[in-house]
Amino acid sequence: MTGRTLVIIALGAFVTTLDNTIVAAGAPSIAADFGLGLGALQWVALGYMLPFAGLLPVAGRLVDRWGRRPTLSAGLLAFGAGAAAGGVAGSAGLLVAARVLQGTAAAFLVPGLLSLLRSNLGTRGRTLGAAVWTASLAAALALGPALGGLLSEYLGWGWIFFANLPFVAVMLVLLPSTVPRVRDPDGPRPPVASMAVVTASLVLLTAALAELGDHLRAGIALLAAGSALGGWFVLRERRAPARLVPAALTGNRVFTGSLAVQVLWGLGISGIVFFTPLLHQEFLGLGPVRAGLPLAAVAVAVAAAAPLVPRAVTAFGPHRTVAAGLAVVAAGLGALAVVNHVPALGPRLPALVLIGAGSAFTTPSTSHALDVVAQRHSGTASGLLTASRELASALGVALIGAVLTAVRAVRLGSGAPAGEALADGYTAGLLAAAAATLAGALLALRVSRVIPPRSRRRVTNTRCRNSFAREHAESPD
């Protein structure tokens, strides 16, 4: 079962992430066919991203209640239907609707798949499973732009969506023999009102990020509304008898620390991945397909380093392993900033390898966070972990984009050529990303450390002896 579980985890991570990156390369073809401007075109991507990010906390809770197999089966069928509809869509409205269906399905697939780390795998298996998950994510991030360019150029943009169907078919075949039919219908009913409030808040906040650049007033209004709903959700959670996020999770320092570490990693890496193909096209003069290919070095490095992760966790502990991985990612981002002024691809590859290798060693943050929560909360915990990463991705693009745009505007104002101005903005974005990642490394050392089992036994025995001594000292006999 372990092998099949790892295959399903790898395919699920790859296809749900690929669907979020592969569209970028086919966007110009979609815009040409439907006559879309840039403002309308971005909703082809946001149609997937918004329900994905917004529904993740809700979906994690419902996975625990409905059971993994029925939820994953329904999610896969809906994801495949959305992919098929997107491939044959004859209008922008239908395409966005198909993307919304896919994003909604992905929101239920991801926490269901991540919860298999807790339910199907042992301690070492969870570490390997988390490494496989992250390697698959990195592969999808790296290969998405190039694969999307190839499919759009030679087969048509519809095949960007049809490419999902083989992955869905294989997972549906493996599912019955891998995931037991377990449900908890008698568990506590989900707090529907809290679900609606937090989902609306996350959707509004994510939409605000998309609107701030072109429509400042609309973006500010969305940001204010999303923040208000988010504050209301926090107040509801504190007072509600049935909480959407169990107190056992919010009171767990290791779990909440892992959420924060994932956010900082996402802030540091996502914006760089998003803007790298643009830099390669405008500054290095590469075509759309070749511009995305260097990101494959990140995926190769993640895959090569992943087998070393379980040994590192055993030798150094998860907190030191994650901190070291984040530090290496920060070093890679800094190295990329140092050579970014060189208009050549070769000097960038070692830095991209460092970023990928370091990212592989951040994977124990996920498995370690799932290890410290009860199995009945594994779906909710998985949804929160994934939601933090997805939201951090959006925030990362916004953060790096804001830094890049501001520096680029200053350089253009001083008369610099467009390519050089973009490169300078990208360098500033790299430094901001390195700072966020380094902060994540320091946080991982502080909040993710737990007492090893042997030390816990020694502490427990000492406390028992002290308690026994106190009782006898206070006894009149």
Write structural notes for this entry.
With 477 residues, the chain is mainly alpha-helical. It folds into 2 domains: 2-180 and 244-449, Growth Hormone, Chain: A (Up-down Bundle), CATH 1.20.1250; 191-243. It contains 20 helices and no strands. It is globular, with a radius of gyration of 23 Å. Residues 451-477 have low confidence and may be disordered.
Mean of the pLDDT scores? Answer: 78
Distance between the termini: 59 Å
Low-confidence regions: 451-477
CATH architecture of the largest domain: Up-down Bundle
Question: Biggest sheet: strands, sense, closure?
Answer: none
> How much helix, percentage-wise, in residues?
over 70%
Q: Characterize the overall form.
A: globular
Helical run tally? 20
- According to DSSP, the number of beta strands is 0
| DSSP strand content | under 5%
CATH fold-type name of the largest domain: Growth Hormone, Chain: A
Number of structurally distinct domains: 2
- The fourth-level CATH homologous superfamily of the largest domain is MFS general substrate transporter like domains
Whole-number radius of gyration? Answer: 23 Å
Q: Specify the CATH class of the largest domain.
A: Mainly Alpha
Determine the structural class based on helices, strands and strand pairing.
mainly alpha
Along the chain, the helix and strand elements come as HHHHHHHHHHHHHHHHHHHH
Chain-wise SSE layout:
Blueprint: H1 2-34, H2 38-66, H3 68-88, H4 92-120, H5 123-154, H6 158-162, H7 165-178, H8 192-212, H9 216-239, H10 247-250, H11 253-282, H12 288-292, H13 296-305, H14 309-316, H15 318-339, H16 349-360, H17 364-371, H18 378-413, H19 418-447, H20 453-474
